[in-house]
Amino acid sequence: MTTPRSEPVLVQLGARPEEAVQLVGPDARASYPADVRARLRADAEIILSRYPQARSALLPLLHLVQSEDGYLTPAGIEFCSDVLDLTGAEVTAVATFYSMYRREPTGNYRVGVCTNTLCAVMGGDAIMDALRDHLDIDHGETTADGAITLEHIECNAACDFAPVMMVNWEFFDNRTPASARELVDALRSGAQVTPTRGAPLCTFRETERILAGFADDRPGALESSGSAGEASLAGLRYAREHSMTAPRAVTRSSDDHPDRGAEAVAETVREKPAPAPSATVPPQPNTTETDPPTKGK
């Protein structure tokens, strides 16, 4: 007796269509009109000319299409995949790996509040809470007027100016809840705002075009130093005043290995297998992994 064959069952893997990882939104463009595509293609050729390997241009190309739409759309993914001869899955895998690429529409100003350890201790959490209440939006959301997208962000390597905010990747140092509210109010009013370090702000889409590798035409962009401030230099001055210097690096000569040259040593290390884990996988009962010896016995 033979068992009748059942019908094959199709199991669809991956994210649900409504999930943001799909880069599909209700108003997201599926493809670019011919004139937009031609304009982007001309810009893409400029970017591609800078890279010996075409696929190395993917990151700036993603910034380019984000400058067009304000976030990544199916149209932008399709454009990048066509230009670089990559699959849509390959482009999406990169686009969803980096937090700099947006999956939802972004306001004119992407306002980030550092809530990493030092900034949080110095008031970053309080600033974030104040802006949530003031703007009536949460992390990742955008105000109804399309002006501000609010985010909490990770360390921006400016701990000596904590707590720090960033607007379109420009620094605003030593913030307080009051000065943070004043900043977003000025941005929403259309006033020209200049960061603590850098040139006057431009919009998110304009910033994305600069990140794609095109000229920064903001007045004073080239003259703005962005150099270290007083807080950054305090440790250096203290070291000089006390004649403190870093220890010299210890170099090892070939005499340390009289029988083997550097290449032979490197080859020996390269061929050596990685050490095996000490624990059993899964851990077995009555072993030191599951039943460590009691101290003192």
Main-sheet strand order equals 2-1-3-4
Total beta strands? 4
- pLDDT averaged residue by residue: 82
Shape: globular
Distance between the termini: 66 Å
- Could you state the order of secondary-structure elements as H and E? HHHHEHEEEHHHH
Helix percent band:
25-40%
Instruction: Bin the strand percentage.
Output: 5-15%
Count of DSSP-assigned helices: 9
Radius of gyration, taken over Cα atoms and rounded to an integer in Å? 27 Å
Sheet with the most strands, sense and barrel status: 4 strands, mixed
Q: What assembly state would you assign to the polypeptide chains in this entry?
A: single chain
SSE-based structural type: alpha+beta
Identify low-pLDDT runs: none
Could you characterize the architecture of this molecule?
The chain is an alpha+beta fold and 297 residues long. The protein contains nine helices and four strands; from the N terminus they run H-H-H-H-E-H-E-E-E-H-H-H-H. The chain has a four-stranded mixed sheet with strand order 2-1-3-4, with helices on one face. A hairpin with a 2-residue loop joins strand 3 and strand 4 (170-172). Helix 1 (34-48) packs antiparallel against helix 2 (58-69) and helix 5 crosses helix 6. It is globular, with a radius of gyration of 27 Å. It starts with 33 loop residues before the first helix and ends in a 26-residue tail after the last helix.
